[in-house]
Each structure stands twice: as structure tokens, then as C-alpha cells.
Design goal:
Helices cover about 30% and strands about 25% of the residues. It has about 325 residues and is an alpha/beta fold. The chain has a seven-stranded parallel beta sheet, sandwiched between helices. Strands 12-11-13-14-15 form a five-stranded parallel beta sheet. The chain has a three-stranded antiparallel beta sheet with strand order 6-7-8. The relative contact order is 0.12.
Length: about 325
């Protein structure tokens, strides 16, 4: 049931060996949960060269780092990374393991859990510890995002979960020296059953919702696709990124690249302005961690107002031009 009480966070790396943001983001809740478990926060880095990511993990809050490096880990592979991570778990026996719900993380986590015979909760949006059982309470949307389910792994260890990028903010960087444990685990490259043939740039509109500090999102209340002209203009005037609800994407009003929510991107900007968004559970799951939420909706009973820090009841086509004028004046001041 976990020989140690440590909580592990996987620091996934890019091909240049720098860490992906999601691993550093998870060090934030990881620090709190590790303390509540009575253990340390340990970062795990598996890469061709682990030095950059290991240093970053320490700077962003890890108590120690365990690394495995070698040329076979330059590109992610199910075979090599699963074998290496499983080796570490069997040796150190952590209590909890957290992995970012990236494409690679969603592939890696279930393979590890299957190897070691434990449970896995996927695509989590909230994390806490249940006072009665001491288990991690993994919260994730269920039934198409219509409810939020809280899941426990009561009988097996380590407890494992994948957490969506953008749900948590990176902690403040505080450079420091920490213990780095360098493990040696070689995996025969000939046993890697996949290979990268070609890397192609993503085609289509690129939208950095996860890195945005201000997001203006349009919902079904816009009425039609032309409504996004107003949203784009408003966003551009205040230096914001354009977001969208699932309903508007499904209607074909805007591309999926802009979608916020369980089936889109999870975001945590400083300011989130929801325009004509009702506040469906699957949408809220992707933006509830925003620092300040402003809602504009003509329906005073829209659920989004329960979440908003500031709510404006009114026609968004009348409210947004007035709000834009005021915000632009504030930004210039």
C-alpha cells in the first residue's frame, strides 16, 4: 500500500529536453497533497538528457528528482517509457503518482497502472485528500461532462491519475539545489515497436488558450457565427485570446482550436470573460480555475453567474462595446 508516503509528478519533456508546462503545473497541487500525505514531492524525469527538466522541477517546488536518461528516451515511446517508469515505481513504491493528461500521458498512465495492478483516474480537474479515508479524491467530469464524479482508489497503491493541462497554475519559480537521484535503466531500442517517421507542423489555426492571461469566450448566446466578429474585436482590443463553448464549435461557428471545456482545453487565465455562455458542467470543468471570471448573459438564472466573480445581466451586443470602452480606458491609464 505504498512503502513511502511520497507523491510523484511526471515531468514530461519535449524533444529538446525542456519540460512541458503541465508537469510543472502539477507541482503546485502536488506540494500541498504531498504535505497532507506526510511525504515528499518527487519529480520524475525520463529523457535523453534530464538536466534541464530536473533543474526546472526543483526550481518549481519538487523536494527531489529521480531521473532516467539515455538516447532511447529522446522521443516518447510506450515501450521504453512504460518499462522505465514501472521500474522506478517497483523500486521506490510511492503512494501517489500524477501524470499530465497530454497525448503521451494518456498513453503512458494506463500502461503503467496495468503493469503494476492499480487503478487510474483519467482527465482529472480537481484534486484533494478525503479526510475519512486518507485517499486522494480525484474529481473528473463524467456522463459527457454533465456531472462531476469523485473517485477513490481504496485498495491498491500507488494511487494514479492524469490531470488536464491548464487546470493548475505553475508555482512561482524559486531556484534552489535539491537532491537528484540518477537511476540507470537501459531499454533495448530494438524492442521499441514504434518509430517516428516524420514530424509535421500542425495545419490550421493555432490558438494558445492554455498560455493566455485573458480569454474572451463566446457561447450559444451569440446567436450565430457572425457574433464571433464582436468577440474577436473585443479580444483584440484588450490583448485577449478568443475562446468558445462546445455548442458554438458543434454549430460550426468557430474552429475546435478555440474550444474551452472537458472536450476542449482546460484553462486558468488571470481573467476569463464568458459572453453568452450558460455554464454547462463540461464547460465549467475547463475554466473554473480562472483567477477572475466575468459573465455576461441576458438570462439572470444562467448557471455561469454562480461561478462568476462579476456578473452582468444584459444583451451582450450592448454590454460588450461599453465594457470594451471602459477596459481600454483602464489599460491606457
Amino acid at each position: 500500500m505504498g512503502a513511502s508516503k511520497d507523491l510523484w509528478v511526471f515531468i514530461e519533456t519535449k524533444t529538446d529536453n525542456t519540460p512541458k508546462n503541465v508537469g510543472l503545473e502539477l507541482l503546485n497541487p502536488g506540494k500541498r497533497l504531498a504535505a497532507e500525505q506526510g511525504g515528499k514531492l518527487v519529480a520524475v524525469v525520463i529523457a535523453e538528457d534530464t538536466s534541464i527538466a530536473a533543474k526546472a522541477a526543483g526550481d518549481y517546488g519538487a523536494d527531489s528528482v529521480i531521473t532516467i536518461e539515455g538516447p532511447e528516451y529522446k522521443h516518447y515511446s510506450t515501450d521504453a517509457h512504460t518499462a522505465a517508469f514501472t521500474y522506478l515505481i517497483e523500486k521506490y513504491d510511492p503512494l501517489t503518482v500524477m501524470i499530465g493528461a497530454t497525448g503521451n500521458g494518456r498513453d503512458l498512465a494506463p500502461r503503467i497502472s496495468g503493469r503494476i495492478g492499480t487503478g487510474l483516474t483519467a482527465d482529472c480537474t480537481e484534486l484533494s485528500i478525503d479526510e475519512q479515508t486518507g485517499c486522494i479524491a480525484w474529481t473528473r467530469p463524467a456522463f459527457g461532462g454533465n456531472i462531476m464524479a469523485v473517485i477513490f482508489c481504496a485498495n491498491h497503491r500507488p494511487q494514479m491519475g492524469t490531470i488536464r493541462p491548464g487546470v493548475f497554475k505553475k508555482p512561482a519559480s524559486q531556484p534552489k539545489d535539491i537532491e537528484i537521484i540518477k537511476e540507470s535503466f537501459s531499454f533495448d531500442p530494438n524492442k521499441i515497436r514504434t518509430r517516428i517517421v516524420e514530424i509535421m507542423e500542425e495545419v490550421g489555426e493555432k490558438v494558445d488558450l492554455e498560455g493566455a492571461e485573458i480569454i474572451v469566450t463566446g457561447g450559444r448566446g451569440l446567436g450565430d457565427a457572425a457574433g464571433f466578429d464582436l468577440i474577436r474585436s473585443f479580444a483584440a482590443s484588450i490583448g485577449a485570446t478568443v475562446g468558445a463553448s462546445r455548442a458554438t464549435v458543434e454549430e460550426g461557428w468557430i474552429s475546435h482550436a478555440h474550444q474551452v471545456g472537458q472536450t476542449g482545453k482546460s484553462v486558468a487565465p488571470k481573467v476569463y470573460i464568458a459572453c453568452g455562455v450558460s455554464g454547462a458542467t463540461q464547460h465549467v470543468a475547463g475554466m473554473s480555475s480562472s483567477e477572475t471570471i466575468i459573465a455576461i448573459n441576458k438570462d439572470p438564472n444562467a448557471w455561469i453567474f454562480n461561478l462568476a466573480d462579476y456578473g452582468i445581466v444584459g444583451d451582450l451586443y450592448e454590454v460588450i462595446p461599453l465594457l470594451e470602452k471602459e477596459l481600454k480606458a483602464k489599460l491606457k491609464a
